[in-house]
4-diphosphocytidyl-2-C-methyl-D-erythritol kinase
Amino acid sequence: MLSFPNAKINIGLNITGRRADGYHNLETVFYPVRIHDVLEVVPSAELQFSASGIGIPGRTEDNLCLKAYALMAKDHALPPVHLHLHKHIPIGAGLGGGSADAGFFIRLINDRFTLGLSNPDMESYARKLGADCAFFIRNEPVFATGIGDEFHPLILDLAAYHLVLVMPRVHISTAEAYRGVKPAAPRKSLRESVLRPVEEWRSLITNDFEQTIFKNHPAVRGVKAALYEAGAIYASMSGSGSSVYGIFDKQPDLAELSKENQVFSQL
Ligand SMILES: C[C@@](CO)(OP(=O)(O)O)[C@H](O)COP(=O)(O)OP(=O)(O)OC[C@H]1O[C@@H](n2ccc(N)nc2=O)[C@H](O)[C@@H]1O
Ligand SMILES: Nc1ncnc2c1ncn2[C@@H]1O[C@H](COP(=O)(O)OP(=O)(O)O)[C@@H](O)[C@H]1O
């Protein structure tokens, strides 16, 4: 059985407080985008994992898909499987690729072995694996609060726009990014701002990670500026970076940006 985990972008990200457990409370909008990995699960004599595509840093046993399998196997008599992951979503990019794999894998196992889990059941497994994993169970645009795992419905459709994503050659760890921010009460309500026309977002919607990441990695700031120069209506770093997306009303010419960076378009 095959599944195609997709990436997310964050539209706005306000870090509102630091918690006793070391995590941060935040508010953000998660929006799914069409950059995909490929996950395949087939029955096997023993549990096996293989990967292709972009190299995944870290130990195989720490892959979020294997962690998800172990978690679900505690409660369900799961047969062994061979899991193959073809990695295409850039890593350390603020695109939630690892979390997407975990969320989609939970759904795949639920479907393949007809476990009958509800969305809230699957979200509670996902929450144990990472703050933004639970988003990928429903995989619909949401306004998120808490540590990024409490969801509030949001009607947002950017299909009429040209969405592009630029991936500078900079890898940023999420933990490093959180260490650099000072939590504060948001100056504007993101939940209200995101309902305003996209043309107004530039003066309303910000990502709190940009301040420190732009200081430490000026190339990322340069990509955002280049997207505005190319005519973006709105541009922002996604999550903890380093990817930067631009929302355009027509297909932009990004030939210059493509020389130094990986560019994804038609998202
Ligand atoms: C920043 C965001 C924004 O959407 O996305 P990415 O840029 O990673 O895609 C998320 O908060 C990333 O969520 P996720 O990547 O699942 O985080 P986790 O694996 O749970 O946590 C990694 C580390 O980030 C920090 N962390 C994460 C989430 C949060 N609300 N507060 C935190 O302080 C903690 O130091 C934690 O040890
Ligand atoms: N299936 C997976 N795909 C990518 N990274 C994974 C996966 N499982 C675990 N990881 C670990 O998660 C880290 C963060 O990856 P990722 O979720 O892609 O980035 P981001 O937090 O920027 O969205 C990687 O450096 C890697 O060590």
User: Anything to note?
Assistant: The mean pLDDT is 96.
